[in-house]
Amino acid sequence: MSTATGDRRMRAVVVHGPGDVRVDERARPVPGPGEVLLALEWGGICGSDIAYWKKGASGTASLTHPLVLGHEVAGRIAALGPGVTGLGEGQPVTVHPAQLVGDGVLPARIAGRTNLYPSVRYFGSAAFDPHTDGGFSEYRAVRADQIRPLPDGVDTERGALAEPLAVALHAVGRVPDLRGRTVLVNGAGPIGSLVVAAARHRGAGTVVAADLAASSLAVARAMGADETRDLARGDGLPQDVDLVFEASGAPAALGPVLRATARGGTLVQVGNLPGTPAPAVLGDLVTREITWIGSYRFVDEIDDALRALRDGLDVTPLITHRFPLERAEEALAVAADPHSGSSKVMLRLTAA
Question: Is residue 170 part of a domain?
Fold first, then answer.
């Protein structure tokens, strides 16, 4: 990718180290062969963005140099690079943020499950050196095969939520058929609330959401939960639930969640668990013969997410705060504060 020179500049949200995020000025990129230049409009703050800002690391990926944050983004095509066809300037789009590194070949047993490919560059990730800059910037050059046009009627703010909705749709897709089933979603943060919406979209019968924060439970209700359990007020989890989605990622939650899962039932682990030792009560996994399934990112469910948005799945209750790009640090602080009442915090990446 080449970059422009002279006064063609742009702003970007860059994390330089733990607690050090800045709105830096950078050269505006120029799209190379097979790339498009996006003028970004909206970005959603994710837990990984917060982790890089607070700790300088997300999971096992640590910063070794500054990184542009953001993988939940949408905007409009500003220019086409050489050889790009089928797309047009001004077209509203979002981005599939994953790019396989290498030949892309997977063992036959996981053929097609590209989310399990061992070497993936992801927007806004420090997993590689050099890091893969994200999309919290006014412009970004993107490979044309990562572009996903937005359907008619889906604006770029909702389009920026196609990525986390894809995570939720992948999670519910780990179970063959939800139709008519009772579902428990433990953890009603942004992903948990999107799992509520995805389960409802896929035909679940009754959806129960549980969380420690009343504000998160209010979002889950607006996203389609029939019932909520406020764990901070002493509400217990329902018992003997056939299908459970654990979206909190808290090891302390695993014991109660396993106990809530019916004998012979299924637990889908959506929330990221820590990569370091942590105590958890797991005995019921064996004695109740529970099927415990992992769910990681998504394959092509971003296309399903866009179709769901086109067909009327409403993700707007998830959005609780909006900030301009220049207030990115404040936006991160609100998203990270469990007492702020925030769910999905959005950044307006260009002037309205």
Answer: no
